[in-house]
Each structure stands twice: as structure tokens, then as C-alpha cells.
Design goal:
alpha+beta; 383 residues; Butyryl-CoA Dehydrogenase, subunit A, domain 3; Butyryl-CoA Dehydrogenase, subunit A, domain 2; Butyryl-Coa Dehydrogenase, subunit A, domain 1
Length: 383
């Protein structure tokens, strides 16, 4: 079986997975469900998380050695995109990409085996606690506000992290901490003594959290990685998450544009559909171009992740696609509201669900400006 046939076969499988995921998402999570969960304590439903596990999606990226299914980012993107079209509030990318990949990349010790198996089973929803700046504009990795200090009885973790997703109802955290002159990654259960979680509601009805570690005592088995190994593992997981967050943003762009085009076709003024007015056609074409540019770069990024690449090349591509997807997502949101007119401002109209999610995702992990600065720093450019 030649490689071309394998590529074709995989593309067919991804297409079938995408269709299956879309059917599931549309039936199991109509937009009314997302509306109903807004303002709830956690912003999502753990019973629905169990349904994701039944579909096999909680272990899609996790290798078979860890009880997962060992699929690629093309497959994961198909699922993420389908769920995003329904504005599913469950923390799929924060937990199943960011946290699980950070855990996986740190090695195959007993802790990793246990955590990843629990993620696959749908029993564990992890988050990553890494940002220390309250504004959330910095994407620099080195931890300084949270320190892992040795004591006679183990390691004491002290400090605070912000913008941790998911917020409420998270089972534990992958925590970046300063240890000596280097970085370390720790697994901290959410119910550990000294962990204080303050949930913060976001614009789309989901939540994030500020997490304070007030002298949390840990033993060495809770250490996932230290030094260069911790930096490499975290950076790789971060880059992969930027790409998958961009998948969500593209799905939102497509949904907003589709709603807007349908409105232009049906809204009548002066005896004609407003979509027949040339000025509005030009604006719609501009939005379509932005969506297509995002789609093109995203395809490159997913291929790069699946084929393997140099870490620097991966980081550059990840920041590039997140910057483009964030900018395009916000542009589509603004223009869609303007092209809808007054109805676009109403909470009852479904466009608002997509706009609010785009606002949250465009800022998560660093907005477009932060990602351009990261790109310039990695590429040794000045901007």
C-alpha cells in the first residue's frame, strides 16, 4: 500500500469522522443547550463529557500506550470543529489538548499513565495553570510568581495563576513553577489542601479561574518534569493548543459568515434583498477572503503537527495561525453584527453565541498582538 493511498484513505476517514461528529453535535448539543448552561456554576455539563468519552473523543489524541486511540491532529480538528459549530461549552481543547498533551509530553511514568488513562475514560477533566499576569497579554513561559520550594517533608508550592481553563469543576491542574533557576511541571489535584480556586465568568458563559496555591505540599511523584524537559513539554503542548484553538475560531468564522449571508439573502429593503446591494456584496467577499486565508494557513499548521517538524518551525507556525485566526474571528464578529443591523445586537439571536465565543477564544493563550510579538521574538525580528 503506497503512501498516496494511505493519505487518501486517511482523508476519507477524517471526512467520515467530521460528518459523524457534526451529526452528534447537532443532535446532542443544540444551541439551546449552550444557552441554558450560561451562568451555571461550571458553565458546562459533566454528563455530556461522559458522552464525549463514549464517542472515544476524550482519548483521540492520546497514544495507545496510554489507553488512547493514537489519532492525529487532523482527526482531532474534525471533532473540535464540529463541536464549535454548536458552541459546545465543554472544555475540549483546554483539557483534551492543552492539559493532556502537556502530561503526555513529560514522559510515561506511573503518574502520566494514571492521569492519561483517567482522561481517556472521561473521569478526569484537567486544566493548565501557567499564566501569572492578570491582564493575560504576556505569553512568556518562565514562571516566577509560583515557586516550588523544597522542605523537609517534600515540595511546597506557593503563588497564584490566572486565566486557568476550565475554571470551576476542574479535577486538577498541570502547574508551571519556578524551581531553583529552572522550570518544573507539577500535577496538583484541585482538592489538595491549600488550593483555592476563584471562578471568573467569561463573556460566552463559560468560566476560567484564578488559582492560589497557599503552601500546597507535594511529594516527588507529583512532579511531571523539571528543567529543559519541562520547558520542551510545555512549549510543544502550548503550540498544539494554539492550532486547535484556531480550529475553533475558524468554525466560528464559518458559522457567522453563513448566518450573515443567509440574512443578506432574505432581508428585504426597497423591494430587494439587501444582498443584491453591491456595497454589501463587497463586504461579504472581504469576509469570505479572511475566512479562506485562515483555512489555508490552518491546513498548513495541522499538516505540520501531524508530520512532525522542528520545534522552532512549529512555534512560528502556531503563533502565526493563532494571530490570523484571532484577527479574522474578531473581524467576522464585528462585520456580522453590522451587516445584520439591530437584530445582531439582541441576545435572543443566535449570532451572539458565536460572537461571544469568538471574543473569548481570540484572547485565550494570547491575542493576535501577543502572538505576533512571540513570532517576532522567536524569529529574531523587530516590530
Amino acid at each position: 500500500m503506497n503512501s498516496d493511498h494511505l493519505d487518501t484513505e486517511r482523508q476519507d476517514n477524517i471526512r467520515m469522522l467530521a460528518e459523524s461528529a457534526q451529526t452528534f453535535a447537532t443532535k446532542a448539543s443544540p444551541l439551546t443547550r449552550a444557552r441554558g448552561l450560561r451562568g451555571s456554576a461550571s458553565g458546562f455539563d459533566r454528563s455530556f463529557w461522559g458522552k464525549l468519552a463514549e464517542q472515544g473523543w476524550t482519548g483521540l489524541l492520546i497514544p495507545e500506550a496510554f489507553a488512547g486511540y493514537g489519532q492525529g491532529f487532523g482527526e482531532m480538528a474534525a471533532v473540535v470543529s464540529a463541536l464549535a459549530t454548536q458552541v459546545v461549552p465543554e472544555p475540549v481543547v483546554p483539557a483534551l489538548v492543552f492539559a493532556s498533551r502537556a502530561i503526555e509530553h513529560t514522559g510515561n511514568g506511573d503518574l502520566q499513565q494514571q492521569l492519561l488513562a483517567s482522561i481517556v475514560a472521561g473521569e478526569l477533566i484537567p486544566g493548565v495553570a501557567w499564566q501569572e499576569e492578570l491582564a493575560g497579554l504576556q505569553v512568556n513561559l518562565p514562571a516566577s510568581a509560583v515557586v516550588a520550594a523544597p522542605t523537609n517533608s517534600g515540595i511546597q508550592l506557593t503563588g497564584e495563576k490566572h486565566h486557568v481553563r476550565p475554571g470551576a469543576d476542574c479535577d486538577g491542574f498541570v502547574v508551571t513553577a519556578k524551581q531553583g533557576n529552572g522550570l518544573s511541571l507539577w500535577w496538583v489535584p484541585a482538592n489538595a489542601a491549600g488550593v483555592q480556586v476563584k471562578s471568573v465568568a467569561l463573556a460566552d458563559g463559560t468560566s476560567e479561574a484564578s488559582v492560589r496555591f497557599d503552601g500546597v505540599m507535594l511529594d516527588n511523584p507529583h512532579c511531571l518534569a523539571q528543567g529543559d524537559a519541562a520547558t520542551v513539554a510545555f512549549t510543544r503542548a502550548y503550540d498544539e493548543t494554539l492550532v486547535m484553538a484556531s480550529v475553533e475560531l475558524l468554525a466560528l468564522q464559518q458559522a457567522m459568515l453563513n448566518m450573515t449571508l443567509e440574512y443578506l439573502r432574505t432581508r428585504v429593503q426597497f423591494g430587494k434583498p439587501i444582498g443584491s446591494f453591491q456595497a454589501l456584496q463587497h463586504r461579504a467577499v472581504d469576509l469570505h477572503i479572511q475566512q479562506e486565508l485562515t483555512s489555508s494557513v490552518l491546513g498548513q499548521a495541522i499538516t505540520l503537527l501531524d508530520s512532525g517538524c522542528d520545534p522552532v518551525e512549529r512555534s512560528l507556525m502556531a503563533s502565526r495561525i493563532k494571530a490570523r485566526a484571532s484577527d479574522a474571528g474578531l473581524l467576522l464578529a464585528r462585520e456580522s453584527i453590522q451587516l445584520h443591523g439591530a437584530i445582531g445586537f439582541t441576545d435572543e439571536y443566535d449570532l451572539g453565541l458565536y460572537v461571544q465565543r469568538a471574543l473569548v477564544l481570540s484572547a485565550w493563550l494570547g491575542n493576535a498582538q501577543a502572538q505576533r510579538r512571540r513570532y517576532a521574538s522567536i524569529a529574531n525580528l523587530s516590530i
